[in-house]
Write a structure and sequence with these properties.
- With 275 residues, the protein is α+β, with helices and mostly antiparallel strands.
- The chain is 25% helix and 24% strand.
- The protein is built from eight helices and ten strands.
- The chain has helices spanning 3-7, 11-14, 72-81, 133-142, 198-208, 210-216, 220-227, 231-243; strands at residues 42-45, 48-50, 61-65, 88-102, 114-131, 152-158, 163-165, 174-180, 184-185, 247-248.
- Strands 1, 2, 3, 4, 5 and 7 form a six-stranded antiparallel β-sheet that branches. Strands 6-8 form a two-stranded antiparallel sheet.
- It is globular and about 50 Å long.
- The protein starts with a helix and ends in a 27-residue tail after the last strand.
């Protein structure tokens, strides 16, 4: 009789990201962005998801993950790229006052990513990832925070403006989030649009813009393939968003505090690795 048969616990092999269907990272499969999220809170430990022994980690920084930072495969890749192997608590939480918008830039990973937007009255189930100083520096670097031309700033979103409640109801005083420096895409009425998933999003954007079709093709597959790792093309696509007046403010700009040289209790930001 196996350990799973005796206890209901899948055992070490059953806790791997591959066994759980969480190994694929959006950077390798852009049209899957934001990537698969866990069904419940867990501890990301290398290639495994383990049970959490607690929800609050006072020695770490809470970061609200709205996109691929909640994908264990993507998170594991980002940390491993810098040689970081320490575990990351991932807590499935309920956030209100914020929603998942669409970043007004084209990523060199081949997708258009998510960015938080102010959304009074909206409640979403999102992950809080608790990062130590070293891990936070890595994620900052992956979002371009240390760079003057990077895509994101890290902002502290305080309660009660943004309320984050853990699964047991414990409220947080606030959480960090990555706010896009380019703004976010609107829905045609001037209000921020919500991220509907990569394939339908790219399809809608291409249908609505001749210039985007000229740059990226007529399908989501073509968009992703052409954008991938082509910095100049991505920059041109980002300019099209602005020039065609598709961009609006996220409503979170006032919370942005520059983290390019670090801040107290969060550590200094690393520079992205050379590729």
């Amino acid at each position: 009789m196996s350990a799973e048969d005796r206890t209901g616990d899948p055992g070490p092999a059953g806790r791997t990201l591959r066994a759980l269907g969480l190994a694929e990272a959006p950077r390798e499969h852009p049209l899957l962005y934001p990537g698969p999220w866990p069904r419940e809170s867990a501890l990301l430990d290398g290639d495994r998801l383990l049970p959490l022994d607690r929800l609050v980690h006072e020695d770490r920084v809470p970061v609200l993950a709205l996109g691929s930072n909640a994908s264990p495969g993507q998170l594991r890749y980002k940390l491993a790229r810098f040689g970081i192997a320490s575990p990351v608590p991932m807590v499935r939480s309920r956030a209100s006052g914020v929603d998942v918008g669409v970043s007004a830039h084209v990523s060199r990973m081949g997708y258009v990513s998510a960015s938080p937007v102010k959304a009074p009255g909206v409640e979403r189930e999102l992950f809080v990832i608790w990062l130590d100083a070293e891990q936070l520096s890595v994620i900052d670097a992956s979002e371009g925070v240390p760079l003057p031309d990077g895509n994101y700033d890290r902002a502290w979103l305080p309660a009660p403006d943004v309320r984050v409640a853990l699964p047991d109801g414990t409220p947080l005083h606030g959480a960090h989030a990555y706010v896009n420096r380019h703004g976010v895409l609107h829905d045609g009425t001037g209000a921020p649009r919500t991220h509907c998933g990569q394939r339908p999003l790219l399809t809608e954007l291409l249908m609505g813009s001749r210039r985007l079709r000229e740059l990226f093709g007529v399908s989501a597959e073509q968009f992703s393939a052409r954008a991938r790792a082509d910095r100049l093309l991505c920059a041109r696509g980002t300019r099209v968003f602005a020039e065609e007046h598709l961009v609006t403010a996220s409503g979170l700009e006032r919370y942005v505090r520059s983290q390019r040289t670090g801040s107290p209790d969060t550590g200094a930001s690393l520079s992205p690795p050379r590729t």
